[in-house]
Amino acid sequence: MARICESVAKAALKAGRSPKDVSVVAVTKTVALPRILEALECGISHVGESRVQEAKEKLPGLPPGITRHMVGHLQTNKVGSALGIFDVIHSLDRVSLAQEISRRALAQGMVARVLVQVNTAGDEERHGVLPGGVESLVRQISVMGGLSVEGLMTIAPYTSEERRLRKAFSVLRELRDEIKGKNMAGVTMEHLSMGMSGDYQLAIEEGATLVRVGTAIFGSRPRGGDG
Ligand SMILES: *Cc1c(COP(=O)(O)O)cnc(C)c1O
User: For 14-40, how does the pLDDT look when each residue is reduced to its tens digit (9 = 90+)?
Assistant: First the structure.
């Protein structure tokens, strides 16, 4: 656990970046609360879950000051629960979902922090908007109230090929830079959520500000825990 923080700091320094610009989101799906609490003692302050129901059962047990991230696909009918549990939603990938988040956030007088999920590799099995559709989606979101678009998220292709991984990450960074330059209302675009246990070092070299790490912290999950 302490090792993961050291390793992230090392990767940041290697990339000429400051370790404090990269946060580890400990992805805790299938991990029981006592083990999560143990992990948090080593200084991690971000937790990620991919299912609303599981998060509802576990996350209320976290101490205050932990930022809670929804990293999995979000069904529109779960938005109400998700907004009650999570601080940041990484998986905004369609207008209808944005509309529902906006409607509920406005009703509660809150601003929902979201990242737009991008299918950088155009992989048919992945959720996320294709790179060519990101700016248009962000523009539509930017005129809705109750939403703050804080960046982009991607899940890299299943591969160990460095070239393809880097490509997915650099596509996300370039999109972020381009959209950030348009200075749209309610769009800060400060975050790049990319990199998991197998590839977070590369993601950090390509500009990640949030790395979502499960296995490298908690060990491998039982089969089927990939939500
Ligand atoms: C499970 C999961 C992770 C963490 O994956 P590891 O390979 O265990 O580090 C990161 N992001 C998302 C969206 C996930 O579902």
Answer: 999 999 999 999 999 999 999 999 888
* pTM reported for the whole predicted model: 0.96
pLDDT of residue 221: 85
Residue nearest to atom 6 of ligand 1 (CA): 214
Q: Is 141 in the pocket of ligand 1 (CB under 6 A)?
A: no
Can you give the pLDDT at residue 173? 98
| 155 Cβ closer than 6 Å to some ligand 1 atom | yes
Within 8 A by CB and 6+ apart from 149, the residues are 92, 114, 115, 116, 138, 141, 142, 184, 186, 187, 188, 189
Q: Does residue 1 line the site of ligand 1, with CB under 6 A? A: no
Is the beta carbon of 71 within 6 A of some atom in ligand 1?
A: yes
Best of 4, 24, 27, 221 to mutate for ligand 1, by most ligand atoms within 8 A of CB? Answer: 27
Q: What are the distances in angstroms from CA 58 to CA 66, 74, 85, 195, 200? A: 13, 18, 10, 24, 25
What is the tens place of the pLDDT at every residue in 124-170? 888 999 999 999 999 999 999 999 999 999 999 999 999 999 999 99
The residue-averaged pLDDT of 99-118 equals 98
- Tell how far the Cα of 193 is from the centroid of ligand 1, in angstroms: 11
